Amino acid sequence: MSATHERVPHRLIITLCTVGATLMQALDQTIANVALPYMQGSLSATYDEITWVLTSYITAAAIMTAPVGWLASRFGRKYLFITCLIGFTGTSMMCGAAQSLTQMVAFRLMQGMFGAALVPLSQSTMMDIYPAEQRGKAMAIWGIGVMVGPILGPTLGGYLTEMYNWRYVFYINLPFGILATLGLIFFMPRSFGNFNLRFDWIGFGVLSLGIGGLQMMLDRGQDQDWFTSTEVIAEAVLGGLGIYLFVVHMITAKKPFIPVVLFKDRNFSAGLVLMAATGTILVSSSSLMAPWLQNLANYPVEAAGLIMAPRGIGTMTAMLTGGRLATRMDPRKLMAVGILMLAWSMWEMTGWTPDIAPWTIIVTIVAQGAGLGFVFLPLQILAFATLPPQYRTDGASLFSLFRNIGAAVGVSVTSAVLAHNTQVLHESIGAAVTPFNRALQGGGMVSHAWNPVQAHGAAVMDQIVNQQAQITAYIDDYWMMIFTTLPSLLLLLLMRRPKPGAGAPVEAHAAMD
C-alpha cells in the first residue's frame, strides 16, 4: 500500500490544490459576514432577510454533505471533485453579479450544493496520496487549511469590501478556483466509478424535505408573524413530516441512507447533539458581531474585520494545545473548560455597549475562539472512540451534517429574535417619549434637540430609541446563547472516557470544516 502511495507523482501540486479547495469552502462560510450591511443596502433587504445569504449556503451544504460518499463511489472522486470545483467557482461569480436578494439566495444555494463536497473530497484525496506513516502530517497540513479560512474570512472580507466592493468577496474565488481545477485535471490520479450502485432516494428526499422545511420556517417566520401565517404552518408541517419519515425509513429500510447503528453508540449520539449546539455558537456569534461592530459601534468595515480575526487565532491555538492534552487527560474535562469559556465570553458580551474598548472586545472573542477549539477536537476523540471502525466515515459525514444544521438554525433563530426584540423594545422605550417626560420639559438644549414635536427632534429621538432597543436586543441574544451552551455540560455525563492511547480517527476530521 505504501509503495503505491510513493509512486503518486506531483504530490505537492495535488496537495496545494486540495488544500486550496478546502480553504475556499471554509473561507466562504465567514467572508460574507462583514459585508452583510453593504449587501443589505445594495439588495434592498431587511436585516433578517439578508441573513438568508448565510443560511441558504449553510442549509444547502448541510443537505448535500451526506450523499458525497455515494457520489464519489458512483462517478469517481476525480470527476466529482473537478465538477464541484467548477460549479463552486462559477456560482461564486454569479453571487458577485447578483442584482436582487432572490438571485443572491438562489446562487448561494447553488454555491453551497457544490461546496458541500469540497472538504470531504479533499480529505479523502490527501488520505489516498500519502502513505499511512505520513497521514498524520498530511492531516495536519489539511487541517491548517481548514482553520485558516475562518481566520482570514472576516479580515479579507472587510478589506475587499472597503477597498473595492462587497461583490469582490465572491470574485476572489475565481483565480484560486481556476488554478485548483487545472491542477486536479492534469495531476490528480484518475479514479473510476461504480455505475451499479443504487442511491437511497427516499431517505435523501425526506431528509432534504425535513431540513429545507425547518429552515424555511425559521427564515420566514419573523416576516410572516410565525404561526398566524398559513405559509409558516405549512413549512413547519412539511419539515416535521420530512424528519419523521426519515427516522422511520432509517429504522425500517434494509440499506438506509444513514446506518441506524450509529445512533446506538452513546458517545457518538451525545456528541452529535453537542456538535449541533456548538455549531449554533460557531456561526451565529460571528453573524451577530459583524453588524454590531459596524451599525452600533460605528467601526469601519476593515476595522471590524480585523477585530473579528483574533477569534480564529484563539481557535487555532486551542486546537493545537487541546490535541496534545486530549491524549494525556480526560477529554471531557477539556470540553467542560471549553463550554465554560464559551458561556463566560457570552456573559461578557451581555455587558457590551457601543463605547466599549476594542481590547476588551478582542480579549473576549479570543476566549470565545479558544472555547470552541477546546470543544471541537476532544469532542471527536470522545465521539469516535467507541464507534466501530467501519462506521467512522459515515459518522464523520453525520457530524458535519449536524454542525451545519446547528449553524443554520442558530443564524436563523438569533436573527429572528434580534429583529423581534428590537421592534418590541423600540415600542416599549418609545412609550416613555411623551410630553409628560421631565427630560423633555423645560427650555434646555436637550429638550430642544430632542423635541418630538419638531421633525428634526423626532428623527433624533427615534434614532436614539432604536439604538437603545438594538443594544438590549443583542444582549437578549447573548443570554439565549448562554442558555444554549451551558446545558451541554450535562451531555458530558453521558459520554464514556476513551481507553488510554485512543485518539481521534483521521476520518473524524471532516467535522472540523
Give an account of the 3D structure.
It is a single chain. This protein is mainly α and 513 residues long. The chain has 3 domains: 1-198, Growth Hormone, Chain: A (Up-down Bundle); 201-256; 262-513, MFS general substrate transporter like domains (Growth Hormone, Chain: A). The protein has 23 helices and no strands. The chain has helices spanning 2-6, 11-27, 36-42, 47-50, 52-65, 68-75, 77-96, 101-115, 118-129, 135-163, 168-171, 173-187, 201-221, 230-252, 266-296, 301-308, 310-325, 331-349, 358-385, 392-430, 445-449, 455-485, 488-492. The chain is globular. Residues 1-5 and 501-513 have low confidence and may be disordered.
Report a brief summary of the structure.
The chain folds into three domains: 1-198, MFS general substrate transporter like domains (Growth Hormone, Chain: A), CATH 1.20.1250; 201-256; 262-513, MFS general substrate transporter like domains (Growth Hormone, Chain: A, Up-down Bundle), CATH 1.20.1250. 73% of the residues lie in helices and 0% in strands.
